[in-house]
Amino acid sequence: MFLRNAWYVAAWSSEVTRDLKQIKVLNEKICVFRTEEDEVIALEDACPHRKLPLSKGRIKGNTVECGYHGLTFDCAGQCVWAPGGGRIPSAAKVRPYPVHEKYGLVWIWMGNAAMADPEEIIDIPNFDSPEWGINSGDAMELQCNYLLMCDNLLDPSHVAWVHESSFAAPATKDTPLRVTKTETGIIVHRWMMDHEPAPFYKKVVEFEGNCDRLQHYEVRYPSHALIRAVFTPAGTGGPDGPLHEKTFVMDSYNFMTPVTETETRYYWFQLRNVRPDDEKLSRMMAEDVRHAFEEDRAVLHEVQIGMTNKQSPHIDLSIDAGQLRFRRQLEAMIAEEQMVDAKMDA
Ligand SMILES: [Fe+2]
């Protein structure tokens, strides 16, 4: 089940060109391309005649021509030419999807087009700030339901076992977690005081010795995560800590796009508050992050198989409180949306 009235990432902007391309979001096949004016267009990827995907056809100026019988559609999905010489049937149209480019990503609205407001796309305050560096983004296909990745991103504990060589430190095993419900999602966080920085961060923080570390794991509905890592010299962190001029902050943005019930396209990039123009540092961090996310991918693929085919009940632990709350609230939002849709259809 998916929330439909929401923005999802459809692709990196660089992946959408003048070539017709098929993407799949929430189980729907969609044809994306750019107009001659460089605007991104997204249309239902099925000609209404014999359902050949439009992405198998040809782009002609700002129209798409079906590769079977030449039916031609404009950017609004309206058929503007059909063979046979007669009138164009009124049902000769495909559904257009609202899209919007932001943060180098193409965002797509999957629900009622009248409700699509680009202002509701996640706000990333430091995205264009010259004080912040960016670890260039990437994407990967996950062989699991998108909510398993949302679970993972509300689960600061897993780093102790899944990311031993990068994000793990002894304190990540058993320091208690705090769960907060917000208007837009769930935050699970904890401060871990006075310990050696985890290997990935040890390479990038600009102070020596032990640290105080914040893990802030936040997922917003339907499936967008902000993972904030704060490292500050030991004694200067904590909820009321004075922090320090050498405090290191990394904001990791993660966007999960459901492809099917068991496939997800996972997009990400990170912003950091140190050495914004250091390309080498950006590359190193991007590579390390990709490596860590491959570790998640391997685990989540097996978890998907394990949970689908379980032969005995699974259990929940206290560390799962955040993800269970997130799932419950999202389920309620989906149920409400379906109820309203059913009323409108009646
Ligand atoms: Fe992870």
Automatic annotation (TrEMBL):
Alphabetical list of InterPro entries matching this protein: Cholesterol_7-desaturase (IPR050584), Rieske_2Fe-2S (IPR017941), Rieske_2Fe-2S_sf (IPR036922), VanA_C_cat (IPR044043)
Classification via PROSITE patterns: RIESKE
An example molecular function term from Gene Ontology annotations: oxidoreductase activity
CDD domains found in the cross-reference section: RHO_alpha_C_DMO-like
Any matching Pfam family: VanA_C
Domain Rieske: 7-108
Record-linked PANTHER family: 3-KETOSTEROID-9-ALPHA-MONOOXYGENASE, OXYGENASE COMPONENT (PTHR21266:SF60), IRON-SULFUR DOMAIN CONTAINING PROTEIN (PTHR21266)
UniProt keyword Oxidoreductase present: yes
Keyword field: 2Fe-2S, Iron, Iron-sulfur, Metal-binding, Oxidoreductase
Protein name as it appears in the record: (2Fe-2S)-binding protein
